[in-house]
Fold this protein.
Amino acid sequence: MQKRFDTTYFNGLLKNNKTTKKQVAVYLDDLKLERIDMITRLFSSISDSKSFARNTLIEGAIDKYIEEASAFLLDEHGIDVDALIDASRCEQYDTVILSSNGRGFEETFLGEVEPKCWYPCKISNARENNLKNIAIYRGQPVSAITHYAVIKEFKHDPEQGYKVCFFEGEPVELPNRISLGNKDSCFFIGAKYTKLEYLLNATTADDIQFS
């Protein structure tokens, strides 16, 4: 007998119901809830794990809808949902974290030797337009992020071939030194993007959400 629809999704759902999801409130009418509870009980009776939950069914259905709706928008209308989400994140993440070794931070960022600024700033033009703050991860012996500065502008240095970030006002010391936590010392090689609010409330890099 020929199957009326693709059962791959449901077979996969029965075999794996341990994926981590964020909790949200979903409001359903009585009939939908009654049908979901019945299906949940039936799935529990045939599931490999024998512990199928209502939330698993709802969350899985939402995942399936998102996947198929995203594919429809891309294939039929040329709209890339993931690209739009990435662009939105770029707008929200207003702070770039770069890294420093030796005396570079004191001499340049804090202005002990030259006017307060930072270079080289290897960031894309798309990111640059949304950035408001810059912070530096300081290597050994400090091994922490200690200050940030408000960005005034980026200027390209034609002789050196890199961007220089100039500050608006003085660098600001963070409320807490942000250590690596469980992250490796190589984590801050290359630009990392986050929000200033995360830096102001963090004590380790594990507390920071990065784009």
